[in-house]
Amino acid sequence: MSSLKEICSGLPLDPLPPNPGRDPGVPHAPIRTPDLTAEDERLALRNALRYFPPSHHATLAPEFAQELRQYGHIYMYRFCPTFRLRAYPIEQYPCRTRQAASIMLMIMNNLDPAVAQFPQELVTYGGNGQVFSNWAQFRLVMRYLSEMTEEQTLVMYSGHPMGLFPSLPSSPRAIITNGMVIPNYSSRDQYERMFALGVTMYGQMTAGSYCYIGPQGIVHGTMLTVLNAGRRYLGTDDLRGRVFVTSGLGGMSGAQAKAAVIAGCVGVIAEVDEAPLRKRHEQGWLMEVTSSLDHCIKRIREAKSSKTPLSLGYHGNVVDLWERLLLEFERTGELLVDLGSDQTSLHNPYNGGYYPAPLSFRQANQLMSTDPGRFRNTVKESLRRHIKAINQLSNAGMFFWDYGNAFLLEAQRAGADVEKVNGGATEFRYPSYVQHIMGDIFSLGFGPFRWVCTSGDPQDLVVTDNIAATVLEEISAGASPRIKQQYNDNIRWIREAGKHKMVVGSQARILYSDQKGRVLIALAINQAIADGRVSGPVVISRDHHDVSGTDSPFRETSNVYDGSAFCADMAVQNFVGDAFRGATWVSLHNGGGVGWGEVMNGGFGLLLDGSEEAAKRASLMLNWDVSNGVARRCWSGNSHAYDTIQRTMEENRQLRVTMPFPVQDEHVLDRALQG
């Protein structure tokens, strides 16, 4: 394809492409406010120009300076490709190795306008989850990948391609780091400055690691969360007529509408930005849309009464929705909501991640850029209102949980009443969904495993769905009662996945599996490629939000109680271990989910091509990728993880893990400390 060859030829310099500026037909990232000094601006401009020969500096410098001052960052819109970026079939990429072509496909999917939140700013999801920092980086990466051999590795520094370096055929084809900032300088304010300078980047989780698969990536986890919340809080997994209220319909939060309907409940999701609301409605993920609170209340009552699954998008502020639900309760005594959560991007509260009441979307964007200090105070006041309404509804019987988006963390920082009496450093009045709803699945080794059919053929996805379901059914038949429920939920999910039409972008699927399931699914898919039942290679991956991939004390490791919740050895070890056990590419990020400076996380991509070598890599790497985290959780004192890693060692005699001896008599400690 000539367009793919063009973007793989590097930076177009002779002549320079025209500069059409920003496309008004697509959503754009909020204006950033890095508060640069005059010297900082000069440095940012100098850093941007180093991608280009001096003969072009006089032309590019004024427009880059304008972008910096107008948008708070130099995106280099002039070099944004004019043709549609999407996951084209792997055979169409002009590459010397399929491994490089698979990385190109995944990058293109992350920047597909049907997938990406702000495609022209290279943001995939979460408001600021960058694939690259600017378009020059994108074009250079595509050229490097097209030229790469199997004895080279692409080294990526926070969006910047440092180059191709000699390596072994067994080495990863790409090593990615994002946001690796010295800890004492890893603050939000420092980040805004460094991102504006073009020297670091916030890759979220799967944005900067090229592994995002659209909102489907979180639909399954959200569905499991809602189902398990019903089991834990309501005593049932029949959620017909039950109401789940939350917020956010963006790249990740957009999954909530589809997940609510699959779980069988009534999902009411508030969203202040009309663009994602309409996008989810047009994609069929959102059944109804309204901007009327009166209509919201009417439809909630109707759906509760008829016990009909519904996803209703409220175009407005979630604070107004919560306060109206509280008003209805105070007026009538009728509690219209059973379950509640929040998925606003509060890892980024002051730059478009949270839109405060009472401002409109447009008013908030304007205040954000013209008076950041006042905007920050407005956000804090809104969070206090937000929590006040939730607290009163919770007191009336509604069950609320934090979805790992830093909602309770930022509410606490804003002075809201979220403190847990006698709680630990990572505990709040309401639980994290990891702590109370999903936490022990990580200790059992279960987490989000995914794959992408690089042929682009929907039939390949059907075949791999059937392979995965068959594998899980075979394992489930001999599973212990503790994990049988996990298998059954995932078998139901994968058997019904096709009819829910969740594919947005690449032909991809996700499910939750443990170590054994992941390995056996990968090997079975690899064999199907070898046999010709699957027509092209398959990339396997996972969300960073997983058993071993993320150290995040307010989410993934919030149920680690030995004092190590704020340590990041697990995520770093996982990144290194995946790299030398066979991953096609690996990544390590600062930030993601809960926010910059709050998390360390990593991920991988591995290409299955039907070869014996691919099978060997998959088996070795996937076993490590799960056992690492289970072993850490075991050492922290988790009994489920202890049992899981003990069983894994019995199945693999080469695995030897240091096992903890728990203190059985607390009086031993008392006597020692009193003496």
Automatic annotation (TrEMBL):
The Urocanase N-terminal domain covers 85-211
Q: What is its EC number?
A: 4.2.1.49
The UniProt entry's coiled-coil ranges are none
Q: Give the reaction(s) catalysed.
A: 4-imidazolone-5-propanoate = trans-urocanate + H2O
Q: Which GO terms describe its biological process?
A: L-histidine catabolic process
Residue ranges constituting the Urocanase C-terminal domain according to the UniProt record: 440-646
UniProtKB keywords: Histidine metabolism, Lyase, NAD
Top-level taxon in the UniProt lineage = Eukaryota
Q: In which pathway does it act?
A: Amino-acid degradation; L-histidine degradation into L-glutamate; N-formimidoyl-L-glutamate from L-histidine: step 2/3
Q: What class of enzyme is it?
A: lyase
- Occurrences of domain Urocanase Rossmann-like (ranges): 214-437
- Tell me a Gene Ontology molecular-function term this record carries: urocanate hydratase activity
Its required cofactor(s), as named, are: NAD(+)
Q: Work out whether the entry's keyword set contains Endoplasmic reticulum.
A: no
Q: Where is this region: Disordered?
A: 10-34
Q: Is Plastid among the key words of this record? A: no
Family to which this protein belongs: Belongs to the urocanase family.
Cite the NCBIfam families for this sequence. hutU, PRK05414.1
Q: Name it.
A: Urocanate hydratase
- What organism is recorded for this protein? Menidia menidia
